[in-house]
Design a protein that fits this description.
9 strands; SH3-like_dom_sf; alpha+beta; binds 2-acetamido-2-deoxy-beta-D-glucopyranose; Otoraplin; SH3 type barrels; two-stranded antiparallel sheet; signal
């Protein structure tokens, strides 16, 4: 029994470690973000995609026109760049979170106003 517990613990540790090793820290899209709370865990809003979006790299998510997306944070615009929001597609069982341009979506329902200005962290731009 004890040996079984050790194996399970070891497997989860190894699993986590390999995920980190396989991941990559990408350049930050912005230094600041707006969240609904200080942990950025509350869902800000539900939006609907008006256009398809093809993720240019692993920081982004693919979106098809008509899909509904939950928004968790809103990056603050850098000079000369677009505005990106972080979210996950409603029907994505894996709940993959990534960025998409805010100008291709239409906000349907706001759950909690994003009025907390936060610094982004390296983890916000980490992907596998
Ligand atoms: C954001 O980062 C700046 C500079 O590192 C720091 O002065 C500031 O306190 C940070 N703000 C928050 C909300 O953590």
């Amino acid at each position: 029994m004890v040996r079984l517990v050790y194996s399970v613990v070891l497997l989860s540790v190894l699993g986590f470690a390999s995920q980190v090793v396989n991941g990559i820290f990408m350049d930050k899209l912005s230094e600041k973000k707006l969240c609904a709370d200080e942990e950025c865990v509350y869902t800000i809003s539900l939006v609907k995609a008006e256009e398809d979006f093809n993720a240019p790299d692993c920081r982004f998510i693919n979106i098809k026109k008509g899909e509904m997306i939950y928004v968790y944070s809103k990056l603050m615009k850098k000079m000369g760049s677009g505005e990106y929001w972080a979210g996950s597609v409603y029907n994505d069982q894996l709940g993959t979170v990534g960025y998409f341009p805010s100008n291709i979506v239409d906000e349907q329902q706001v759950f909690k106003e994003a009025n907390k200005e936060m610094n982004t962290t390296d983890i916000d731009f980490f992907c596998e």
